[in-house]
Amino acid sequence: MDKPAEYYSVRMRTTLEGKHISGQERIVKKEDLPKVILELHQRPKREWDFQTIKVEKLKEPPKIIEKSLPIKDYKFSCIPLVKNFIVGILESELGIKREIVKPLLEKLYKGINPQGGNLPGALLVDYKSGEILAEGIRTILFDWVDRERIEKHLLEKGYTERTLDALALATKNALCGVVAEICISDDPDYTVGYISSPRLGYIRISPIKDKNLPFGGRIYFVERKSLEKIIHCLRKKPILIKEAQI
After folding, report:
1. Cβ-based neighbours of 161, under 8 Å, separated by 6 or more
2. Are 154 and 244 within 8 A, CB to CB?
3. Kind plus residue range of the DSSP H or E element containing 238
4. Same domain for 158 and 95?
5. Torsion sign (Cα): 53, 6, 144, 180
6. Is residue 155 located within the same domain as residue 108?
7. How much is the pTM?
8. Is residue 159 within 8 Å of residue 61, measured between CB atoms?
9. pLDDT tier at 22 (50, 70, 90 boundaries)?
């Protein structure tokens, strides 16, 4: 009888003077560890002064998910239209009131950390009341069953490696019970962002912010009664996704 495959989580983060530069999450089999560790080490394209690569053997095999959230693309001529779109669709389709979404969205554009700057991890917010329930929560332990094949397919369709990672993350969030997510990159040169939910899918927005804006972050709208279960899933439950819905 064949021995079950051993899976490992590999997570890379790089910073420059304490500011996040690059990061990536992978789940791989033991025999692929050397190749993947080298790939992640070489991945950052900008200057950095600190890098960590954490390798951890999974205690349970990843859950296999058949399909990602479906990808949809929206392009806008100006940021005010983007803001109106996000506020409007979250209210009309998911019932998250605009008086909750609008101030939180503005915080993403100005630096959500009360001390100024960006917040590491996501802000978890009660989607009914707008109360902040937790902060600094990271979604980890996600990847694709055949990452190279999915990446090639996405690149052929005009997407990027960033889309590959973001789509997997958003899909795990939906699986874990996140009602809706807003994501704006804190990279000043990257202006594509997204909103996602099990109902809406993965809505890629371009541009979601003006170039050279060094602020961004993630907001997860959740149900209060499910908070502990959701956080446990985001942090502890490994998943692999078979196919990207394009």
Report:
1. 151, 155
2. yes
3. none
4. yes
5. negative
6. yes
7. 0.93
8. no
9. confident
